């Protein structure tokens, strides 16, 4: 009996099934937390006495912390064992979820979201690693299918669950609901997964590389998050942060290219197929996430929608993606992945252009149509990209390539959130100024005064209408720029050569 066969025999079929469900559930919980707070930002901002712009730090802090921790996953698993690290990561995630729910200030909430991200980052790849470890080769496709479904289902359910909880309970419960799931996963992992623990070894860690990674990403993200409140480069603090981020990034690249055991293996970028694939992924995913960020905020702050309705509208895309995923999975390997990816990105770009013509008088179903239709393209973008990127590197580089791909995707999410909200705010101010300069309000004021309004009331009504229209125009600008980014990503894919031979995607996460 081989070592691999002996691992499978340590668990009965029933234990294997239960363990697989628990691992899929843990992944679902972590992915859910990427989007569950999106529709709750206006509720949280109002409760904590902060602006909606500041409220988005709740999204970006989690994503950045998760991205930073992903490159550490391999070292942590080798050093302490994958089962032990999975259990401790789940415990940490549960504890920080409680602290997030108990937070009474933005500072505490952002700090606890960073803790959540640091603990949640390794859970995704480690849950996948454990699934591959407990299931024999003939059952792995089914197990990974279940895991992939939770990855798609999480973003779909996040806005709906977050919106319902915020409207009917309290925003604190979007974090508290993680606790029973975390407890269940910890208890089940301790009972079921200990027999499949991995061997440990004292492996070196690139401490300087880790420090530089945290330093430059931290400076960059803080600059992006606070820049819009500090007049950007008119503020010396923003200038200093930009310089530190640039110096840190340059030092990070030089160090990682010369380090024997780099925390991020940048040498993988020598493969043009991988480079073009991950840049298409980062641009495409960032442009797609722009809608997930801006739509709930616009609907709740300007259009009078509840968090629940905003969540349902936002989730339409992921619902359609779930329906199309099995078709995309069957086509992968039979059709050139570049055709599938570029076709999906082009489709997403067209749907984004459609949304660039929304107005303040648009109804729910007119917004739901492009949201739902664009979702059919998502699996044809995400699934073949793994084949393209991992098929472009050597087999011994697959794990590093998969980790770097996940890192860039998560960073794209965080950076896109900051840029989109900056662009939306700037667009709103410019549009309002232009409308105010050409507006002839005298007739309207006279009509409103004839209806019994005072001069000040009439002015306020007109001002509110201008604000509403300016916000709608700014949303359209965001979608137009997102569409251009998606079309650019469509072209970049074709820099990659066609993958040849079978591709091992087991290391992807």
From TrEMBL:
Recorded source organism is Sphingobium xenophagum
List, for all copies, the residue spans of the domain called Major facilitator superfamily (MFS) profile.
Answer: 19-501
Q: Where in the cell is it found?
A: Cell membrane
Into which family does the record put it? Belongs to the major facilitator superfamily. EmrB family.
Please verify whether the record's keywords include Transmembrane: yes
Q: Where are the transmembrane segments?
A: 18-37, 57-77, 86-108, 144-165, 171-193, 205-224, 236-257, 278-299, 305-327, 339-356, 376-394, 406-425, 478-496
What is the first-listed, main subcellular location in coarse terms?
Answer: membrane
Q: How does it sit in the membrane?
A: Multi-pass membrane protein
What protein name applies here? DHA2 family multidrug resistance protein
Q: Name one Pfam family in it.
A: MFS_1
Q: Which UniProt keywords apply?
A: Cell membrane, Membrane, Transmembrane, Transmembrane helix, Transport
InterPro entries given in the database record: EmrB-like (IPR004638), MFS (IPR011701), MFS_dom (IPR020846), MFS_trans_sf (IPR036259)
